[in-house]
Amino acid sequence: MPAQLLQSHQLKATKQRRELLLLMQREHRPRTAEQLQTKLKDVSLATVYRMMDDFLQAGLVNRVDLGHGHTHFEYADPKHHHHHLICDDCGRIEDVRVPNETKIVLSVGRKAKFRVRRHALEFFGLCSRCQTA
Amino acid sequence: MPAQLLQSHQLKATKQRRELLLLMQREHRPRTAEQLQTKLKDVSLATVYRMMDDFLQAGLVNRVDLGHGHTHFEYADPKHHHHHLICDDCGRIEDVRVPNETKIVLSVGRKAKFRVRRHALEFFGLCSRCQTA
DNA sequence: TTGAATGCAAAGCTTTTGCAATTCA
DNA sequence: TGAATTGCAAAAGCTTTGCATTCAA
Questions:
Q1: Would you say residue A31 has pLDDT above 80?
Q2: Residues A61-89: pLDDT tens digits?
Q3: pTM of the full predicted structure?
Q4: How many CB pairs below 8 A link A and B?
Q5: Between 20 and 30 A from B83 (CA), which of A1, A56, A83, B124?
């Protein structure tokens, strides 16, 4: 599957790319380049970053800013578009869907004559556990 | 004004803090620590970063991720809450207001039993000029 | 007066880059 | 085969930190 997906985006299906894409599909969670590299073992960190650039351009992954100093990446599953709730206290990350999101994004773009290609949205605060603690 | 604002947030109103806060209120645009330091002249970069931490905690400024490698900061004017449209082509940044934003944020938090304290939202794409070019 | 804030310079991290070797189409 | 990709190690930022000094309350 990864091989075909890569080729359909004009990306040469190298061993490293196939492994990384497969890993990200399975994790479907925001991960740092280092976290991904650790789980791949035979791929250099520089290559992970280079592949991320390619994947980002192809729209296969999204860049996620969780407020920690380093960038996270997440597989962009078109069937499960979502955003994140990030707990300031315990760091837990929950997925969340925003109602009428498409409509909102379209209306924002239309009003400003801006062609929105993508957007980033994260919520920060306290998760249910940490509120009571 | 900055002096009182600082003190109301339990922040000692030092010369550097007053100047930085005043500058950010006037700029009311996302700026990097370096950009701010340049305009201040007599404040070290380390101090700008340290002040940003304080201001962020106090809620006086927001952290903005424009997708470039470095963090931007913007004065958090409660009367002009807005988000950004960032042009992939020319880099121009426009402010935008999202209709019913408060309602949306509240509903997202309620559904997930998550107490949302703040959120980050940026739109990327092509501005009106770059669409036609 | 005194704890907090600042400056300077060094250290720390994440991310990028050059170049030779390797690999996929 | 030939262009694209990868590894390694060095370089390049941005951001943080230690410590002596200065400053606001």
A1: yes
A2: 999 999 888 899 999 999 999 999 999 99
A3: 0.93
A4: 106
A5: A56
Strand D: which nucleotides have any atom within 7 A of a protein Cβ?
4-10, 13-18, 23-25
- Model confidence at B95, pLDDT cuts 50, 70, 90, reads very high
Q: What residues contact residue B113 under an 8 Å CB cut-off, 6+ apart? A: A127, A128, A131
Q: Indicate the residue of A67, A119, A125 with minimum beta-carbon distance to B116.
A: A125
Residue type (1 letter), B5: L
C-alpha count within 13 angstroms, C-beta hemisphere, residue A67: 22
Q: What is the DSSP string of A106-130?
A: HHHHHHHT-EEEEEEEEEEEE-HHH
Bridge partners of A123, per DSSP, are A85, B119
Tens digit of pLDDT for each residue in A80-113? 999 999 999 999 999 999 999 999 999 999 999 9
Q: B54-71 burial by CB neighbour count: b if 16+ within 10 A, else e? A: bbbeeebbbbbbbeeeeb
Name residues 7-66 of chain A with a Cβ under 7 Å from nucleic strand D. Answer: 11-12, 14, 16-17, 42-44, 46-47, 50-51, 54
Of residues A70, A107, A119, A92, the one with CA closest to residue B100: A107
Is B123 close to A119, i.e. CB distance below 8 A?
Answer: yes
The enclosing H or E element of B61 equals: strand B61-64
Domains and CATH numbers, chain A: 1-79 (1.10.10.10), 81-133 (3.30.1490.190)
The percentage of residues in chain B with a pLDDT greater than 90, rounded to a whole number, is: 92
Distances (CA, A) of B54 to B6, B45, B126: 10, 14, 34
Q: Provide the pLDDT for residue B80.
A: 95
CB contact under 8 A, B119 and A124: yes
